[in-house]
Write a structure and sequence with these properties.
CATH architecture of the largest domain: Up-down Bundle
CATH topology of the largest domain: Methane Monooxygenase Hydroxylase, Chain G, domain 1
Helix content: over 70%
Radius of gyration: 28 Å
Number of strands: 0
Structural class: mainly alpha
Length: 383
């Protein structure tokens, strides 16, 4: 009995971990079935093949993503169908050679347009269907283009409505999840990069860390674009994800600067004098990023910055002491540059932490406004 209970808990945990993917799976399935049923009602040729495929393609992880995919798919299909239908009608093609020429005339300009404007990526695909699909559906090119547009419209609207009605996933929520993941990654990367000031780092490992941070921001940026597009579909106001995305991008730049400054360890006398206060800065900064991640997920106000600011003050005092003692006087120019680059990076990190706190609190306040619940103890669970 205990094994069954353990297996059941394991299964529930896996379902919770993959609930976003499972919701997408359900929406795609419902969109495919609904578009097939509608295609039968309208007696669309080929059993509604393209309507079903369109519904599957445009049903994305979030409503904003579905809206973007539907618009791009519809624009590309309409442009490709009109152009290819016109070419196939005006240019006679009674054998394979002439059909080959028509196909080239229909596809080439649309392929160039798709390369210039991503909104028309589906254009060449549509041209092929219009030109070659006419024989399969036993219609003329105009009829083939008409049915192509009709099927895409039917599949696109179906996929969009399913995304809106069936367990809708808000891109706004996905932005928070992706941003929280990036904050956790930054918290793990900080100690690794700062360790380069006291010991030699593996350049390949540093590149891996920086690339992983860049990939994490790319995911946040992609979902953020969907969230902005999604805002037009809701009457309730939601925070603009732009400030959060810009803050995360600046934090990424901070870690790039820190990684470059830490390419070579500091001289031993600086390690002795600056090592302990710098280690405290790293510890408090990583703790703040982890606490900010939890606050963002829980929609709570930002944790306080007091410990980070106190650690930065101690480090600034250590730097001031080093200057008074003229410890940098006999150092090579590149070492002095790295010390000042580190100071500038820490100043930027502090300012970006302030901006991050503002963004986290803004998301928390928007959640309070939408739910009507007020948490009088915003930070207790984060301590």
């Amino acid at each position: 009995m205990s094994r069954v209970a353990t297996a059941w808990r394991w299964l529930l945990a896996k379902v919770r971990d993959r609930r976003t993917q499972l919701r997408l799976c359900l929406r795609v399935t419902v969109a495919a079935l609904a578009s097939f049923v509608l295609a039968q009602l309208f007696t669309i040729p080929l059993a509604g093949l393209w309507a079903v495929l369109t519904a599957v393609v445009v049903t994305q992880m979030s409503l904003g993503g579905s809206l973007k995919a539907t618009i791009e798919y519809s624009v590309g299909t309409l442009g490709g169908a009109v152009y290819a239908g016109t070419i196939a009608t005006l240019v006679p093609h009674y054998d394979e050679i002439s059909l080959l020429a028509v196909l080239a005339l229909a596809v080439a300009p649309l392929a160039l347009l798709a390369a210039v404007d991503p909104h028309f990526r589906v254009g060449p695909f549509t041209a092929v269907i219009v030109v070659l699909g006419a024989s399969g559906t036993h219609t003329d090119p105009i009829g083939s283009a008409f049915y192509r547009v009709l099927e895409v419209a039917l599949g696109g609207v179906t996929g969009l409505m399913v995304s809106f009605l069936v367990l809708p996933a808000r891109a706004h929520v996905l932005v928070i999840d992706a941003a929280a993941d990036m904050l956790g990654l930054l918290a793990r990367a900080l100690p690794d990069l700062f360790s380069g000031f006291t010991q030699a780092l593996d350049a390949a490992e540093v590149r891996r860390v920086q690339n992983s941070i860049g990939a994490a921001f790319a995911r946040v940026d992609a979902v953020g674009a969907e969230a902005k597009r999604e805002q037009m579909t809701y009457l309730g106001a939601q925070p603009d994800p732009g400030p959060l995305l810009r803050t995360l991008l600046r934090l990424r730049h901070d870690l790039v600067m820190i990684g470059r400054a830490a390419a070579v360890p500091l001289p031993e006398r600086f390690q002795v004098q600056l090592g302990p206060p710098l280690a405290r800065v790293v510890e408090t900064a990583a703790d703040y990023l982890r606490a900010g991640r939890l606050a963002l997920i829980a929609r709570r106000n930002s944790p306080p910055l007091d410990e980070v600011e106190a650690a930065l003050d101690v480090y600034a005092a250590a730097i001031a002491t080093a200057r008074r003692e003229r410890l940098t006087q006999d150092l090579p120019g590149d070492v002095v540059e790295r010390i000042f680059a580190l100071g500038f990076a820490l100043e930027q990190l502090h300012q970006n932490f302030i901006d991050l706190a503002r963004c986290v609190t803004e998301f928390a306040q928007s959640n309070t406004a939408s739910t009507g619940k007020i948490d009088a103890r915003p930070d207790e669970s984060l301590q």
